[in-house]
């Protein structure tokens, strides 16, 4: 578990750490992925755009194949698609 502080007050709630996989076309949600790592979550980031894959280097762990990370996310984790181009709506 991790602790979150709000406005420098006493620690007011506990949050379970979660595995979160971000699947990104062009890295719109990169900052959110980074902030979630700072809150103690285990985050992996897939970036489709080859010109942006070096962004967030050494800040958020990355994967070259998001499909191989599905077991890592598991049933208790979260998958974030930042666009709707990954399948039929």
Name some characteristics of this structure.
two-stranded antiparallel ribbon; 3-stranded parallel sheet; 5 strands; alpha/beta; 89 residues
Give a verbal description of the structure:
With 89 residues, the protein is of the alpha/beta class. It has a domain at 1-10 and 28-74. It contains two helices and five strands. It has helices at 30-38, 70-73, and strands spanning 2-4, 13-15, 19-24, 42-47, 78-81. It has a three-stranded parallel beta sheet with strand order 4-3-5. A two-stranded antiparallel ribbon has the order 1-2. The termini are far apart.
List the helices and strands and how they pair.
Elements: E1 2-4, E2 13-15, E3 19-24, H1 30-38, E4 42-47, H2 70-73, E5 78-81
Parallel strand pairs: 3-4, 3-5
Antiparallel strand pairs: 1-2
Described by the principal axes of the CA atoms, the overall outline is globular
What is the straight-line distance between the termini?
A: 35 Å
How many strands appear in the DSSP assignment? 5
Order of helices and strands: EEEHEHE
Mean residue pLDDT: 80
What are the low-pLDDT stretches, counting only 5+ consecutive residues below 50? Answer: 8-12
**Largest sheet strand order:** 4-3-5
Please report the number of helical segments.
2
Structural class by secondary-structure content: alpha/beta
| Rg | 14 Å
Q: Helical proportion?
A: 10-25%
The biggest sheet, with number of strands, parallel, antiparallel or mixed sense and barrel status, is: 3 strands, parallel
Strand content: 15-25%
């Amino acid at each position: 578990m991790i602790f979150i502080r709000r406005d420098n007050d006493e620690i007011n709630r506990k949050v379970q750490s979660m595995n979160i996989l971000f699947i990104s076309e062009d890295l719109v949600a990169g900052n959110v992925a980074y902030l979630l790592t700072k809150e103690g979550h285990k985050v992996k980031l897939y970036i489709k755009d080859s010109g942006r894959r070096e962004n967030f280097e050494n800040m958020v762990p990355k994967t070259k194949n998001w499909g191989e990370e599905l077991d890592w996310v598991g049933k208790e984790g979260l998958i974030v698609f930042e666009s709707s181009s990954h399948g039929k709506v």
